[in-house]
């Protein structure tokens, strides 16, 4: 996989670092794109703010993985603006864009009129973030000029959970495993996301990953 080149944006973050670790472990050539010193296992690094990245910076990669995330209320719009910036930079190129998404926009009915975040028991403190990430997905769906894939995690996305080596690939609808659980560790999520990065099986689609 040494000739397969992946860039991970916001690689120093919790999700980004797990994705880098998984990809490097498979022998993939990984470049960390970070605002400050690279703290990951990536073989290369571009130290640059996300919003300063250019088409030239992203040239030559098979896949760019957007692992940007923020939980600060005042910064939530950056989920939208960062996606648009990367999509604009990749517009018309063969490089695929994979986005680390959210679970709140997963559908809870077959008609796809209700989302997980609409439920009465959805945590109120998570609603602003889920709403913004859902709007970002809506905008991404309009981008037929970019070869994108949006990857939602399970409802319970566990940063420090173990790497079991197993996950279930699902689609647009909220789902659970055989134990009725919707949970996945960052490490197992990284396995599924890197699998998608390598295969490219879901261009212009949203997929979801849950723990087996």
UniProtKB/TrEMBL annotation:
Lineage, top-rank taxon, reads Bacteria
Sequence ranges assigned to domain NAD(P)-binding in this UniProt record = 11-191
Protein known as: Dihydrodipicolinate reductase
- Identify the PANTHER family for this entry: FLAVIN REDUCTASE (NADPH) (PTHR43355)
Which source organism does the UniProt entry give? Bombiscardovia apis
Gene3D superfamilies noted in UniProt: NAD(P)-binding Rossmann-like Domain
What high-level taxonomic lineage is stated for the organism? Bacteria, Bacillati, Actinomycetota, Actinomycetes, Bifidobacteriales
